[in-house]
């Protein structure tokens, strides 16, 4: 499997320093997000190379956007890993990378994946406009 080389740091990607935990995390404010997230469960297959072997396992999304997804899986994938993500319904594949260390949750590991190139059609949904804000009520 050969994946394109991508930079480890993504220009324009806002981060905040969490001084109490001593780690950098993606900013959570909607004003700083590049595209709107949609909470949606989609079956995916994650594939990546490790020590000359292809690792592959099933997982599902928790949230998606045109730049990637938050994936929930039974196993973790190391930060900065280049991978292929396959949409289980369409069988379409897209290259991506794990942007930071996966966080363990009661449902499995939450793995943040960023596509190498944004794709507005990979998830087969129409995303809200970037200036869209939900109304509280």
Can you describe this structure?
- This protein has 137 residues and is mainly β.
- It has a domain at 39-115: predicted glycosyltransferase like domains (Thrombin, subunit H, Beta Barrel).
- It has no helices and ten strands.
- The strands form two sheets. A six-stranded antiparallel beta barrel has the order 4-5-6-10-8-7.
- Strand 5 and strand 6 form a beta hairpin.
- The chain is globular and about 45 Å long.
CATH class of the domain at 39-115: Mainly Beta
Percent helix, as a range, is under 10%
Mean pLDDT: 81
Number of strands: 10
Which assembly state applies to the chains in this document? single chain
Shape descriptor:
globular
Q: Given the structure, what is the number of helices?
A: 0
Q: Please identify, by name, the CATH architecture of the domain at 39-115.
A: Beta Barrel
The structural class is mainly beta
| Share in β-strands | 35-45%
For the structure shown, list the relevant keywords.
10 strands; Thrombin, subunit H; single chain; disordered N terminus; 6-stranded antiparallel beta barrel; two-stranded antiparallel sheet; 137 residues; 0% helix; mainly beta
Quick overview of this protein structure:
This protein has no helices and 10 strands. It is mainly β and 137 residues long.
Layout of secondary structure:
Layout: E1 15-18, E2 23-26, E3 38-39, E4 43-50, E5 53-65, E6 68-73, E7 82-87, E8 93-98, E9 103-105, E10 108-115
Antiparallel strand pairs: 1-2, 3-5, 4-5, 4-7, 5-6, 6-10, 7-8, 8-10, 9-10
């Amino acid at each position: 499997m050969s994946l394109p080389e991508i930079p480890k740091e993504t220009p324009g990607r806002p981060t905040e320093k969490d001084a109490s935990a001593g780690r950098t995390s993606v900013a959570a404010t909607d004003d700083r997000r590049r595209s709107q997230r949609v909470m949606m469960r989609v079956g995916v297959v994650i594939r990546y190379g490790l020590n000359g072997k292809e690792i592959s396992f099933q997982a599902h999304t928790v949230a998606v956007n045109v730049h990637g997804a938050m994936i929930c899986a039974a196993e973790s994938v190391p930060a900065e890993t280049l991978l292929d993500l396959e949409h289980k319904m369409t069988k379409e594949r897209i290259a991506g990378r794990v942007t930071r260390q996966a966080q363990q949750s009661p449902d499995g590991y939450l793995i943040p994946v960023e596509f190498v190139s944004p794709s507005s059609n990979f998830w087969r949904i129409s995303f809200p406009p970037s200036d869209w804000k939900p109304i509280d009520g």
